[in-house]
Design goal:
Layout lengths: L3 H14 L3 H13 L6 H8 L7 H11 L5 H14 L16 H11 L7 H14 L6 H17 L3 H13 L3 H16 L18 H13 L3 H14 L10 H13 L14 H10 L3 H13 L3 H14 L3 H11 L8 H10 L3 H12 L9 H8 L4 H10 L5 H4 L6 H13 L6
Helix pairs in contact: 1-4, 1-5, 2-4, 5-9, 6-7, 7-9, 8-9, 8-10, 10-11, 13-14, 14-15, 16-17, 17-19, 18-19, 19-21, 20-21, 21-23
């Protein structure tokens, strides 16, 4: 089945694409190439859940709306897990109908070399392996593939993140690959130069209890800012009830209404009911970090960042409530690529709350334009309270050069982290 969030992304993406005749023609041609008719009545039935989803349908929407291949498959996997609170062993919609073994071998060859592997290719590889219930690499090569996928996930943004995250957990359904993923994650915990782990720490959920306990112990013992952030994420996953403070519901509703008023008409599309306003309301007002995360991801895939990022910044600068300021800054992280780099940088440098400052620096990094490393930024980089946030922003934006790596005013462990980012490269969007 296609979940509501998947169908909403399909609908807003189609409406955005069909704002002019050229876009509508491209959509019709894409559907025809998959032997489907893009008539208004059929489109409505698919988007309102009155017709069952299929491989051809999702691929037609992806092609017609300019999405990366298999993004809707990965998104539906994520929606299924949110509904069931568990990781599945296979794709929620069969993604292997037109995949050939030779194509998968080629992706493996690319993953074992320096050749690029897109998020779509990672997902194809993972769904093929999961559907056939076996994994066929030597232990050494399995480790190489596992490490590469974890490191790429840490640098992936937007659709590239969704595709790699879901590929990671499909591959982890294979015992041999799961073992390699956990081993590589453990090595990254031990390596103080590791710049980012991303949501790969969610692999702990798949690990056997003794392994999970060992990983959590290593995370508790580490004093690195990156590891503290990962510990917070795992703690939220395991927490049965949210502990964060609630914000005034009326205030959140009023702010949501203001943000929605500025959005283009296509972004306010309904499926069974209105989804845009409830998603913004959940991203700002929900006490559970995980639920805010899922709502923010759906808004990210709707591609409303051109409008929403500016509106969020305006709201942030006028807000005085600490919790709501954090939520606004956090939602800004999901607007990829972000806008207003100078404004974000100024706000990040002036911010005193550590969590808010981390989100603002992440948002600045997600602009993906290089950051000019001023004396103020070097000072923030040397401060343990902002070290992880600034190094992430510099790394994900590709702003680390030889001059910064040779800066003797920075501690050795920090220069090692900056070297990690320099070696692996900036953010990945494909």
């Amino acid at each position: 089945m296609l979940y509501c969030g998947t169908r909403w992304v399909m609908r807003v993406s189609r409406l955005k694409r069909c704002r002019d005749d050229a876009g509508s023609d491209e959509l019709v041609e894409a559907f025809a190439s998959w032997q489907l008719t893009a008539s208004p009545s059929r489109l409505s039935r698919w988007e309102y859940g009155n017709s069952r989803g299929s491989y051809r349908l999702l691929r037609a929407y992806e092609a017609g709306c300019g999405m990366p291949p298999f993004l809707l498959f990965a998104l539906n996997d994520r929606q299924a897990r949110a509904a069931d609170s568990s990781f599945a062993d296979v794709s929620s919609v069969d993604a292997t109908e037109f995949l050939l073994a030779d194509d998968i071998y080629e992706i493996f060859d690319r993953a074992l070399t320096d050749a690029d592997v897109s998020g779509s290719q990672w997902y194809q590889l993972a769904s093929f392996a999961a559907s056939h219930k076996y994994f066929y690499l030597s232990p050494r090569n399995t480790g190489i593939v596992a490490r590469r996928l974890i490191e790429e996930l840490a640098r992936s943004l937007g659709p590239a993140y969704i595709l790699r995250f879901e590929a990671l957990h499909l591959l982890a359904s294979q015992s041999r690959m799961h073992k390699a993923l956990v081993e590589q994650l453990t090595e990254m915990f031990q390596d103080e130069s590791t710049g980012a782990l991303g949501d790969a720490v969610s692999l702990i959920l798949r690990a056997a209890p003794p392994v999970r306990a060992e990983l959590l112990s290593r995370m508790r013992e580490s004093e690195s800012p990156m590891m503290r952030n990962s510990r917070d994420w795992v703690a939220e996953i395991h927490r049965k009830s949210p502990t964060e403070k609630a914000v005034d519901r009326a205030k959140v509703s009023a702010l949501t209404a203001t943000l929605c008023e500025a959005l283009p008409k296509w972004a306010m599309a309904h499926v069974e009911t209105d989804m845009t306003a409830p998603l913004i309301n959940e991203a700002l007002g929900e006490r559970s970090r995980l639920k805010r995360h899922e709502a923010s991801l759906l808004l990210m895939l709707a591609k409303v960042y051109e409008t929403l990022s500016v509106q969020l910044l305006d709201a942030f600068e006028s807000e005085v409530n600490l919790v709501l300021r954090r939520r606004l800054a956090n939602l800004l992280e999901y607007q990829v690529p972000a806008s207003c780099p100078d404004r974000l940088e100024s706000l990040a440098l002036a911010e005193e709350d550590p969590e808010t400052r981390r989100s603002l620096w992440a948002s600045r990094g997600h602009v993906l334009d290089p950051v000019h490393v001023s004396d103020s930024i070097v000072a923030d980089l040397a401060d343990p309270g902002s070290q992880y946030a600034v190094s992430y922003a510099l790394g994900i934006s590709g702003s680390i050069d030889d001059k910064l790596l040779d800066c003797q005013d920075l501690p050795d462990h920090l220069r090692s982290t900056l070297g990690w980012w320099r070696q692996r490269g900036a953010g990945i969007l494909s």
